[in-house]
Design brief:
The protein is of the alpha/beta class. It folds into 4 domains: 6-211, no CATH class; 220-524, Glycerol-3-phosphate (1)-acyltransferase, CATH 3.40.1130; 528-703, no CATH class; 713-816, Arc Repressor Mutant, subunit A, CATH 1.10.10. The chain contains 33 helices and 25 strands. The strands form 7 sheets. Strands 9, 10, 11, 12, 13, 14, 15 and 16 form an 8-stranded mixed beta sheet that branches. A hairpin with a 2-residue loop joins β22 (685-688) and β23. α22 (530-539) packs across α25 (606-619). The radius of gyration is 30 Å and the shape is globular.
Length: 817
Amino acid sequence: MNRLSRWQLRLLGWLQALLYSLLKTRLIGPAQQQSATGGTLRVYALLYPSLAETLVIDREVQTLDWTGPLDDNSPLNQAGLQPFFHVYRRSGSPFRKAGKPVICKALKTLAEWQLAHPDRDLEVIPVRVFWGRGPEKEGSFLRIWLQNSGTLGGRIFTLMAILFNGRNTFVHISRPVSMQRLAQDTRTPTRLARKTALLLRIHFRLVSATVIGPDLSHRRTLISQIPNRPLVQAAIEQAMQERSLTLPQARQKALKYADEIASNISYTTVRFMDVLLSWVWNTLYDGVQVSHIDPLKTAARDNEIIYVPCHRSHIDYLLLSYVLYHNGLQIPQIAAGINLNLPVAGSILRRSGAFFMRRSFRDNPLYAAVFDEYLHSIFTRGYAAEYFVEGGRSRTGRTLQPKAGMLAMTLRSYLRDARKPILFMPVYLGYEKVFEAGSYQQELKGKKKRKESLLGVITTLKSFRRNFGKVQVNFGEPIYLTEFLNQQQPDWREQDYQANHYRPDWARPVVDKLARRIVTGINQATSVNPINLVAMALLTSPREAMEEAALIQRLENWAALIVQQPLSSRTQVTQGNAAEWLQHAETLGSIQRQSHSMGDLIYADDRQAIALTYYRNNVLHLLAIPSVLSCLLMHRQPLPPEQLRSLIQTLYPYLQAELFLPWSTTQLDTVIDGWLATLCDANYLECSDNHYCAVDDREASYTELTALAKLMMPTLERDYLALALLRQRRSGTLTAEQLEQQCSLIAQRVSLLHGLNAPEFFDATLFRTLVSQLLDQGILSQQAHNVLAFDDALVALTEQLEQALDGSVRHSILRCI
């Protein structure tokens, strides 16, 4: 193709225009930020020779501001080199999958040129063009027509692939490979060409696994194999003894369980869902904002990825798959509750990658063995997976206490076969409005959870007339299982796990630590949207109302605090300014405006205020430490930093257990000092004679300090209520369950008497978390009949907590007990 004549260039341009009348392309792969300099020599490596692919690549690379490889004036053509080469030759048979590795003439020429010009670098860009992205099924005739992997057929089959899947074409452009570096210690062109081709073949296999995933075994084949696995066979024998079943009956039950569980990914359904969800995100929502996904694209080539997102809405399942698909990553196998296996909807979810699991199968060893084996099959075959460590959806907006069941099964699978590393990817999903907000409020007030049904799905269609704002998907810091096990259990590789069915004694505490590490990683990847900020700012004001100018100032101040002291490098705050955020919240119906000649007032009515608590709770952990500091200092009593650190250190285990804060106790003093400096810089605090105190209460910033304190005040009040109730009932009189129930009832009464528009204030699960942490810290102990006992340590903790509470609040709580 070097030095193309004018008529050849004109013909190729015409063919390219014709081709793009049939195509709709998406550029995927690692981000290419830098543009090539004038003298950069870039060549493009293909899997197979293909005129259609060269035309697509020529068009797509120009979107990166690179010189098109077919441009007659490109540096490559000036050097007399071919811009494209391939590393496989087609087998010649349309029914034979594997191609033949080759060292093509163009690659040999490039190798000769590189060795002849050691001072210059040839950048080899591996490129894959996917005409559709359906994983191949073994023995499926459709693979011939779809040609997803580029391994089949010639011009006719490429044409068929373009006609069938041209509107769904993905172009994966990888980072450059330096042939100059490969040429080091290489003396002959033949050796350099072979080294380059081998590297590219390995790379292309990894790209294929990352973008498409492994070949799909036929679902019936996979299901039929499960009863033959040793662990399932042992469970079958146990079922025969305990349930008096015959061998055929027990095997049939295992097959039935496997059929109930297994997904059945359909490329046709995936394409349908892609079109449908593209419409949803641009109709119901104002699009999807994705952050920090590029590092994942690189990690996905060498690791088994398990996505562990927070769970806020039923639409989470679809959202993450949509984002991954559009960013060139394989669709995961998703663990979904059996309650979602509804008529029609369940079938669509199963064909979109969902596999279904019962809520509890502790008393069904055969089902547990089948599910374990299915999960093991997913991991060992290289499929990405997704499950929610919180178990169910969060009704309060907080990240829930993790349930470690799926993580335990993942660990057992890894102990059986640790050949491919496992990477857990925490994902934060942030909504400006959730579908289920109304039902969540009702459930928190005591209404029974409504059972999922097809009618319920249909009734949600009326939501399409409303605007739900934007959605944020933020990928957190990856957690590598091998590295985690090496830290927690250094000798884990040396042990034999078969005797205990891969359930070692150390597994449970390690899995519990892993679960907490994951949910902490989710919170570290928080993406703060305008509704989060408005909710935090407005709900700390009396009657949930503020002057517009004051509210704008508070929004800007608190957004700046989060930016200055972020929870992690993955924490993000929305772009724009406070006036725009306020207008956006008003457009979504989250707040209201009252016009006034002296300045407009912004307020939330009772319904809106309760709804806003959900979005405040999404991000409450970001300002937890400065809020508790404000609680301690708002009374204007000067305190030395040592005393402040000591008080925070005492309260921190309970805050960390509820909000999944990331710092260890050894890191906490540095965090506290950082926040004290930031609050002083913001003019919330003053420091004199090495003592900190609040600014003068006549200053406007004192009002902001007291508002900041109100963020965590309900949490501290709830903790104080539980401790005060224990002291009043005396040691050895209440069980944990009785304490949770009584605390919830009293908190509900306090909420009604004092007008707290926060249903989670009396959420029993939060009291359960507190009791669990008090037991872990040794403040409480369990005696006979599970009654709770305590000593003076609880009294001391209560007295320290009192220092953060207003006296009137303490008396109000004590009157209600």
